[in-house]
Design brief:
2 strands; 146 residues; mainly alpha; 51% helix; Arc Repressor Mutant, subunit A; two-stranded antiparallel ribbon
Length: 146
Amino acid sequence: MIFSKTFGYALRAILFIALKTSEKPKIQLDEIAEQLTIPRHFLGNVMKKLVKEGVVDSMKGPFGGFFLNKNTTRCTLYKLMEITGEVEDISMCVLRLRKCNSINPCPIHHKIDALRKEWKVLLSTTTINDLLKKDKPDFIKSIAVI
């Protein structure tokens, strides 16, 4: 499975906000879009979803912007997939056959099904906080040109 741009933008934006929080309390949309080279309008829609779901908070005005809340670091990658609409993709046939399921399986359905279950466990148990651990500085630097 490959994550969508929406998922990638959401995750990178959250990590960027977390990275910049020590410098300033609120990060504006324009700065996130520019630093991460994400189309501003598209990122605005993604951030609106994250705010609506309580993953990040926002404040309007000249001193406003996006900021982390108590739910941000506890958010799992699976929850982020739900917000960005990718959960259905996990169950899709990897060979893109129309009628692939346990009753009518494709040639590799049962092998992939086991991997899917492991994948779901991994995504359900990995939080934003896990990605922000200080022992992974190269990962954090890789989200943007800072």
